Amino acid sequence: MTVATDPKDDPNKKEPLQIIEDDEDGEEDAVDVDASATGDAKKKKKKKKPKKKKATQSDPPRVALSKLFPNHVFPEGELQPYKDDNAWRTTSEEKRYLEKLANEDPQTTYQNIRRAAEVHRQVRAHARRTIKPGMSMMEIVENIENGTRALVEENGLDSGVGFPTGVSRNNCAAHYTPNAGDTTVLQQGDVLKVDFGVHVKGRILDSAFTLTFDHTYDKLLEAVKDATNTGVREAGIDVRLGELGGYIQETMEAYEVEVNGKVLPVKTIQNLSGHSIGLYNIHGGKSVMQIPNDDPTKMEEGEYFAIETFGSTGRGRVVDSGECSHYAKIVDAPRVPLRLTSAKSLLKSIDKNFGTLPFCRRYLDRAGEQKYLLALNHLVQQGIVQDYPPLCDQLGSMTAQFEHTILLRPTVKEVVSRGDDY
């Protein structure tokens, strides 16, 4: 008689073995193998691990850049070879070595400025897409600054906003940001300059663009963008600043704008300029004027420059006009006795929160300061803090601005703020 038995009771049955295999992504996966099978009949059953999802930016942008670039290697800017007598730098072994040393120095590492640049690109992409007539100026600047703080992971003086967000309109060319209580609303016919900065360990990325909402002033924007690109292209090690201004003006003033049937020349705003950028110092000491001049100063290896140009349909000169919002502690401010207790307290707050980075009254509000205007004006009068009132051309004129930050590396010029937009 043959007796049927339950396979589970079979003493000769072997349990499946479990081995570990490396899969294609380099991770180990558990695999069940039927030990009774041989050759091609061997059966494998992989237990797939769920793949980690790559972080993506939110809308509005609030995901920190460290989540998007976990290896902390940030995109390189546009590279432009040096021209003429400096073309040899591209292949020089000595200059490559110097560049490697500069990048390894914690004070000058290119990753700091590139991190700031990538924050700027992502924040401005959202700003350019969403800024529309009917928005208040306060809403515009807060959206930009909140995005900047989140992406750069604001941390005291280690990283954060580089300077107050400028949203100057129409004949006002620069240095306007709303103070508390300002209810100004963006209008359909406005020409809006958006100028904001990001810093990482004191390396400030300074870049600006202009928006319009009809086509009347398209040629004005085209002229200024072209002039800025000319300045970027012609800039380089050993270039004299006075000569560079001539190239900018020549490009700018080749354009005209037709407004209501009247043809207006585009004029360079002669008393505004680009500038070198120092550590925690937005105006590093060298000026890039927009007109030819006798300045023999040369650009030097390792320097950062903000190449910014301003065009106008007005007289081509600006004057201080309106309520001040922008301030900065002077880098080499004198040590003078302060007779106001409130001024001493405010100076301590400025040192703690901003150092020598520019700030505005909204930032003092955010830091918890109250009733500080008297103290602030006293610091200005004592030469410790510099005020920067709005800069405006004549009423009825329109002004535009474009700006890029460039790095004069030993081997090549890097336009760190360049993006797909401008």
TrEMBL record:
Task: Name the reaction it catalyses.
Answer: Release of N-terminal amino acids, preferentially methionine, from peptides and arylamides
Q: Which GO terms describe its cellular component?
A: cytoplasm
Q: Where is the composition biased (Basic residues)?
A: 42-55
Q: Which UniProt keywords apply?
A: Aminopeptidase, Cytoplasm, Hydrolase, Metal-binding, Protease
Q: Where does substrate bind?
A: H175, H283
Q: Where does a divalent metal cation 1 bind?
A: D195, D206, E403
Annotated positions binding a divalent metal cation 2: D206, H275, E308, E403
Spell out the Basic and acidic residues composition-biased ranges.
Answer: 1-16
Which coenzyme or cofactor does it need? Fe(2+); Mn(2+); Co(2+); Zn(2+)
State a single Pfam family of this protein.
Peptidase_M24
Record-level Gene Ontology MF annotations: initiator methionyl aminopeptidase activity; metal ion binding; metalloaminopeptidase activity
- What does it do? Cotranslationally removes the N-terminal methionine from nascent proteins. The N-terminal methionine is often cleaved when the second residue in the primary sequence is small and uncharged (Met-Ala-, Cys, Gly, Pro, Ser, Thr, or Val).
Indicate the family of this protein. Answer: Belongs to the peptidase M24A family. Methionine aminopeptidase eukaryotic type 2 subfamily.
Q: What is this protein called?
A: Methionine aminopeptidase 2
Q: Which organism is it from?
A: Lentinula raphanica
